[in-house]
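INFO worker-7 received task bundle
INFO bundle size: 2
INFO processing item 0
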Amino acid sequence: MAPRLSGPVHLSDPTAKPDPEPVAGCDVCGALVRQRAAARSRGDMSKVTDCNVELRRHPHHKAPGS
C-alpha cells in the first residue's frame, strides 16, 4: 500500500490580485498596459496575466532615500 499523502493543496488564483499600476512616463509600462488591455478585450486572460507579471517585475530605479 502506498503511503498516504498530505491533505488537499489550495493554490491562490493569480487573477485575483488587482492589476499593477504602470509607472508614469515609462514607455515599457505603457506598452505592457496597452498589450494587457488588448488581451483582455479579446478574452486572452493568459496574456493579461503575463503582462501583469511583467509589470510587477519591471525594474524602476528609486531615488536615494525613498
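INFO item 0 finished
INFO processing item 1
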Amino acid sequence: MTWRGVLEGLIERARDPKRRAEYEAELFCPPCPPALAHIWNAFARLGARRASGFGTAPISFLEIEAFQRLSGIRLMPLEVRLIEELDDLYRTIMSAKA
C-alpha cells in the first residue's frame, strides 16, 4: 500500500477534526507537472520493488538499467539523476520517520 493510501484511510477514519486536518495537510501536494510525470512514474515503479532490509536501500544503477531494458523506457542521464534525487529525498524522509 502507498503512503497516500494510508493517509486516505486515516482521513476516512479520523474522528478528531484537528487530526483529520493534519492528515489532509500531509496528503496535499501540488499536481505533478505533465512534463515530469514519466520521471515520477519510473521512480514509483522502481521504488515499489525496492530491496528491503535493515533500512531503506537506495535504488541501484543496476535496478535502473534493468528497468530501462525490461520496460523499454529509455531515460536520459538527467532523468536518471532526477530519480536519484527523488530517491535520496525519499530515504531522508523515511529515516526521519523511523
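INFO item 1 finished
INFO post-check item 1: The radius of gyration is 16 Å.
INFO post-check item 1: The chain has a mean pLDDT of 90.
INFO worker-7 idle
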